Amino acid sequence: MAIVVARPQQVGAGWAFGAIWSKSLRAYRVAILAWGIGLGLLLMATAAASPSIATAAGQLSSVTQSFSFFGDPVAIGTPQGYITFKFLGLLPLVLGIWAVIAGAHLTRGDEESGALDLLLGEPVSRARLMGEKIIAFALGIILAGAIITAFLILGLASAKLSPDVSGSVLAGVNIILATFIYGALGIFFSQFTRTAGAAAGIAGAYMALDFLVAGAMRSSNGPAWVSGLTINYYSELSKPIIPTYGTNPGALLVLLAISVVLVAASMWLFVRRDAGDVVKLWSRASQSATRRPPVAPAVTLTRAQGDRSLRGVAARALAANWLSIFWWIVGIGVFGVYAVFIAQAAEKVIAQAFQSSAVLKALFNGANMNTNNGFISGIEFAFIPFVVVLAAMFFAINWAQDLDRGRLETVLGEPLPRWRLPLERFVTVVVGVVALGAAAWLAPLLGGALSGFTLSGGDLASAGLGLIPLGLLTGALVYALAGRFSSGVILGIVGGLATLSFLVELIQSVLKFPDWVFNLSIFHVYGQPVINGVNWTGTLVMLALAAALLALAVYRFTQADMRQ
User: Fold this and answer.
1) Do 267 and 137 share a structural domain?
2) What distance in Å separates the CA atoms of residue 558 and residue 549, rounded to the nearest whole number?
3) Mean pLDDT for the stretch of residues 227-232
4) What pLDDT score was predicted for residue 551?
5) Looking at the domain assignment, is residue 186 inside a domain?
6) pTM over 0.90
7) How far apart are alpha carbons 176 and 95 in whole angstroms?
8) 238, 257, 279 — which closes off a domain?
9) For residue 407, what pLDDT band results from cuts at 50, 70 and 90?
10) Is residue 154 in some structural domain?
11) Phi and psi of 373, rounded to 5°?
C-alpha cells in the first residue's frame, strides 16, 4: 500500500492559504444558487404580475399609512411601488437569515469542529485567515444579490415596464449592504459565544428587534433619532426602482460604514482572544477576585445527584435549552400583543377600505381584514408560523451539532438503548414548539384585554395550537438530516426550504402556479385558522410526516458507527 505524503509547498502559506477565500466561497456555492435563484424567481413573478394588481392605486391612498409598520408605502399604487413594498423591503431580512447563520459559523464553526487549530498551525496570521474568510462571505452575498438583481430586471421587462437597469442594480446594492450587516452581526456575536448556534440566535433576535423598532417608529411617527438607530430605517430610505423616489446615497454610505465597523471589531476581537475561547467582558483580575474556592469532589458528586436536570437525557436537554426557548416565547409574545394594538388603532380605517378594495385583499392574500379576527390573521399569523418554524429548526440543530462534534460517546456508554437518545432529545423540540404555540394563542388575548379589542379565544387557540405540527415537522426534518450533513449545511437546507415556502405563500396572490404547487408549502397547508378553523387533513399529514422523519432519524442513529 502506497502512502502519499503532501509536499510542503502544497500545504504552506503560498498555496493553501492563498485559496482560503476560494475554498470558503466554494462552500457557499449551493446556498448562493439556492437563495439567489429561489428569491430571484419569486421576485420576478411578483414584478411580472404587479401591473394587474397596482391598477387600483386610488383605493390605497387613505390606508397606506396604516400598513407602514411593514414598510414605507411609497407609490404603492404603481407597479414599482408595489414590488418595493411587497417584496424588496423584506428581501434583506429574508436573505439575512442565511447571512446570520453563515456569519456565525465563519470562524466559530471551525472552532467547534477543531478545524481552526489545523489552519492556525500553518504559517498564516489570524488577521489574514479571518480576512480571507470575510472576503469569501462578502463575495457570496454579492453573487446572491447579483442573481436577484438579474431576475428583477427580467421581471420588470416581462411586465412591459421600462427595465431600469441602474435602479435595479442600486436596489441590489441596497439589499447586499443590509444583508451583509446582518451577517456581520453573526460574525461579531460569535466572538462572545461558544457555539455558532448561540451567535446566530442572538443576531437573529437583534434582526427581528431591529425590524420591530423601525416598524413601530414608522407607524407611530416616533422620534427620528430612535429610527436612526435601526438598520431597517437606512435600508428603507432607498427605493431605487421607484422613479419618483430614487436612491439615498447617504443611507448607502451609513450601511457601508456599519459593515466596516462590525468587520473591523470582529477581526480585532478574533486576533486577540484564544482559539476556542470567548471574549471576556471583564478583566481576569475581577474574575479571580470573585472566583469561588474549590469544592471537594465528593461534594460535587453529592450536588450532581440532587440535580434533577442530570437525571435523564430529556431533562438535561431541557435544562440546556430553556433560556433559548424563553426568549423565543418573549419575542412572539411581544409581537402578539403589539399586533393587537396596531389592529385597535387602525380598525375603522381598514374596515372601510376593505369594503371596496380588491387591491388590499390581494396584498394580504384574501384575508377578510375588515373583521377583528381577519386583521389578526393577516397581520400577526402571516408571520408567526415562519418564526415558529425557524425556532424549531434552532431547537433541533443542537442534536446535529453534537453529532458533528462526537459528543455522544459518553452518554452511549451508559445503559441506555440507542433509540431512546434521539427520542429524549427531541423532547426539547416538542416542549419548545408547544410553548410557542401557547404564546401565539395567549399573547393576542392579552393584547385584546389591554386595548379593548375583541377577539375569539377559540379561533386564536386553533391558530396557536395549529403551529405545533409545523414546528414538529421542521424539527423532525433536522433530525433526519443529522449525521448525513453537517449542522451548518442543515441550517442552510432547512432554512432555505422554509423561507421559500413562506414566500410562496406570502405572494401567492400574484403567482399563477397550479394549486398543487401551493399545497407543497407547509404555510399554505397551515392556512388561516383564525378565520377558517384548523385544516385537520393538512395537520394530520404534517404529523404523519414528522413521525416518519423522526423514525428515520432514530433508525439511522441506531445503525450509525459513532467513530465515523
Assistant:
1) yes
2) 14
3) 88
4) 94
5) yes
6) no
7) 9
8) 279
9) low
10) yes
11) -65, -40
Mean pLDDT of 92-116: 82
Closest alpha carbon to 500 in 380, 392, 396, 386: 386
Q: Distance (Å, rounded) from C-alpha 319 to C-alpha 316?
A: 5
Amino acid in the structure at residue 524: H
Is a pLDDT exceeding 50 seen at residue 290? no
**Do 355 and 416 belong together in one domain?**
yes
- Count of residues making up the chain: 564
Taking a C-beta distance cutoff of 8 angstroms, is the pair 355, 464 a contact?
no
**Spatial CA neighbour of 64 closest among 74, 55, 49:** 74
Pairwise CA distance, residues 261 & 563, whole Å: 42
- Regarding whether 342 and 275 lie in a shared domain, the answer is no
CA distances to 105, 308, 434, 446, 474 from 316, rounded to whole Å, are 25, 8, 18, 32, 22
- Using CA atoms, how far apart are residues 343 and 347, in angstroms rounded to an integer? 6
- Report the domain count for the chain: 2
Cell 399569523 belongs to 381
> For residue 269, how many C-alpha atoms fall within 13 Å in the half-sphere facing its CB?
21
- Do 143 and 236 reside in the same domain of the chain? yes
> Within this chain, do residues 328 and 248 fall inside the same structural domain, yes or no?
no
12 lies in some domain:
no
Residue 312 has pLDDT above 80, yes or no: no
Structural domain containing residue 225: 17-116+124-279
**Local structure of residue 224 (DSSP, 8 states):** H
Grid-cell match 441590489, residue found: 172
Domain identity same for 199 and 54: yes
157-187 pLDDT, tens digit per residue, is 887 776 678 888 999 999 999 999 999 999 9
In the chain, % helix, strand, coil (3-state, to 5) comes to 75, 0, 25
If one compares 227 and 8, the residue with the highest pLDDT of the two is 227
206 is a domain residue: yes
CB 564 within 8 A of CB 484: no
- Decide: 157 and 163 in contact? Cβ < 8 Å: yes
Asked whether residue 241 falls in the same domain as residue 93, the answer is yes
pLDDT band at 361 (very low <50, low <70, confident <90, very high): low
